[in-house]
Design a protein that fits this description.
Radius of gyration of chain B: 17 Å
Distance between the termini of chain A: 22 Å
Strand content of chain A: under 5%
Helix content of chain B: 40-55%
Largest sheet of chain A: 3 strands, antiparallel
Number of domains of chain A: 3
Distance between the termini of chain B: 46 Å
Structural class of chain B: alpha/beta
Shape of chain A: globular
Number of domains of chain B: 2
Oligomer: heterodimer
Structural class of chain A: mainly alpha
Order of helices and strands of chain B: EHEEHEHEEHHHH
Number of helices of chain B: 7
Shape of chain B: elongated
Largest sheet of chain B: 6 strands, mixed
Helix content of chain A: 40-55%
Strand content of chain B: 15-25%
Order of helices and strands of chain A: HHHHHEHEHHEHHEEHHHH
Number of strands of chain A: 5
Radius of gyration of chain A: 21 Å
Chain lengths: 328, 177
């Protein structure tokens, strides 16, 4: 289990680096991904899965440059499902020291609970004086030094489509709505509210307002009203080269990142359980099954394909292999 | 640089890009930390970098979408040169040629251990994880620790270096410092 854990965590960390590098963190990345990133989901995932000092501080650096493009309401909605809000609040405490990030104070309404600080970066001791703001939120780490290497997200990369639309439409639900409809062609408010982490009422109002522009159409389907648009009308937004095998650039894929990050968090917790360290493969598989049963059934059905007869070590291997595949 | 008729230059690079170039660490940021220039086998403090080089770096930055100051002289602290680099650093450099006008030498793993131990004691965090990935031997750590004491002679710093050694599982080196 030790080897699986280290390999899995290494892959998750590599994946987070890749995502952040696409958004403008000064990491090494190739512009190959054809999905659109979800900055709020990525940030929350980083608070729990990205506890590597170099990555973490570069993300803080990115927020310092690009924090205005994070939708805090959506961040809080998604934060009910995954991520570590105490880490997020410590990050917010650093950001609000600059007046341009005053909106982040909204995350600091609650007084941090006084508890003994835990190491923020597992296995990385703190030498000398710890960072006061992180310590106040229950996390022990050395002083924060921002290197100011982060750049604005490049609007001409498909991964940054949502940020591009936020720059056009503002920090409101309509950026997500447009991104979703351009990727999926159509949707109804109930389904979109769940997938986009907005309140149904907000989505209903936004879709109705957008429909009044004449560029969005709708029809009744039973109880639901389905909205759609003509993607060809919006092709001017495609400012990147076509992928290999495509004759023209396409809209980036919409991915349910939140469900993937919830799964990665759950499996990481499973792999870090000390009581399973020496358990038999059968017991490990039973506990892993129990862990997966807490995940979104639609996510499991559509994205995790484990051979029906797999048991014991083969089952665990298949699940980790599937998650690994989703990170590629 | 050749197209612009710049004079040839030999840069000595440390930091994350040197770790990547030598395949010692796989993930770091995109900046290039220039420690020194090399002329006639001697290292010279790289600060300030020549204006023409910074202009060329800026031109490359625009084309490749690199961060501002991606090529920087951050580590080229004059105190470092005054107090002394690790003995023999120039002989251990790993040289890469990039055409007639540019040579880049990366500091060796042995010297990285020296710089990373100093940075880990000073800042912790990523420098400590880098140092651990370099998997230094006790003798390498001993040499590195002794060198760091030439850079900062305070008792407080000495104590932090001992803590770093302990965290690396080499607390016993304390007696040999």
């Amino acid at each position: 289990m030790n080897a699986s854990r280290e390999q899995f965590q290494e892959h998750v960390l590599g994946f987070l680096w890749r995502q952040w590098s696409a958004l403008g963190v000064a990491g090494q990345s190739q512009p190959v991904d054809r999905w659109m990133l979800d900055p709020e989901a990525l940030l929350l995932a980083t608070t729990s899965l990205g506890r590597d000092p170099r990555l973490f501080d570069e993300v803080l650096d990115w927020l310092n440059t690009n924090g205005q493009f994070i939708n805090l309401q959506r961040l809080q909605n998604l934060g009910q499902r995954f991520g570590d809000l105490t880490v997020l609040r410590a990050m917010a405490a650093h950001l609000v020291r600059r007046s341009v990030h005053a909106k982040w104070k909204t995350l600091l309404r609650e007084e941090p609970t006084a508890a003994e600080a835990q190491p923020l970066f597992p296995g990385v001791p703190v030498f000398g004086l710890p960072d006061e703001l992180f310590a106040r939120h229950g996390w022990q780490r050395g002083p924060v030094t921002l290197r100011q290497l982060s750049q604005p997200a490049d609007p001409h990369r498909p991964t940054n489509f949502l940020i591009k639309l936020r720059a056009l439409f503002g920090m409101q639900a309509r950026a997500e709505v447009m991104a979703y409809l351009l990727a999926e062609e159509s949707g109804h408010p109930g389904e979109m509210a769940v997938r986009l982490a907005y309140f149904p009422r907000t989505l209903q109002t936004t879709l109705n307002d957008l429909a009044r522009s004449g560029h969005l159409e709708s029809r009744r389907e039973g109880q639901e009203k389905r909205f759609w648009l003509r993607r060809d009308d919006w092709r001017f937004l495609l400012t990147w080269a076509a992928a290999s095998g495509e004759s023209a650039p396409e809209f980036p894929r919409w991915v349910d990142w939140a469900s993937l990050y919830v799964a990665l968090e759950s499996v990481t917790r499973f792999l870090n359980r000390p009581d399973l360290e020496r358990a038999s493969p059968a017991v490990q598989a039973i506990e892993l099954r129990a862990c997966l049963e807490t995940l979104d059934p639609a996510f499991l059905r559509e994205r995790i394909h484990v051979p029906p007869g797999a048991t014991g070590a083969a089952y665990a291997e298949a699940v980790l292999g599937e998650l690994d595949r989703l990170l590629k | 640089m050749r197209v612009r008729h710049h004079p040839p230059i030999h840069l000595v690079v440390c930091g994350g890009s040197a770790l990547i170039a030598l395949r010692l660490v796989t993930r770091t940021t995109q900046d290039v930390d220039v420690l020194a220039t090399l002329e006639d086998g001697q290292l010279h403090c790289a600060r300030p970098l020549p204006e023409w080089l910074l202009a060329a770096a800026e031109a490359v930055r625009s084309e490749l979408s690199l961060p501002i100051h991606w090529l920087n002289d951050g580590p080229a602290d004059e105190n470092l040169f005054r107090l002394g680099l690790p003995v023999g650093v120039a002989e251990r450099l790993v040289v890469r040629d990039f055409g007639a006008a540019l040579q880049v030498s990366f500091i060796s793993r042995y010297d990285q251990i020296h710089f990373k131990l100093y940075a880990a004691a000073d800042q912790g965090g990523r420098h400590f994880t880098d140092l651990r990935k370099l998997n230094p031997t006790p003798e390498e750590l001993l040499a590195a620790a002794r060198w760091t004491f030439t850079q900062d002679v305070s008792d407080a710093f000495r104590q932090v270096v001992v803590e770093v050694l302990q965290a690396l599982g080499h607390g016993d080196l304390h007696e040999r410092l």
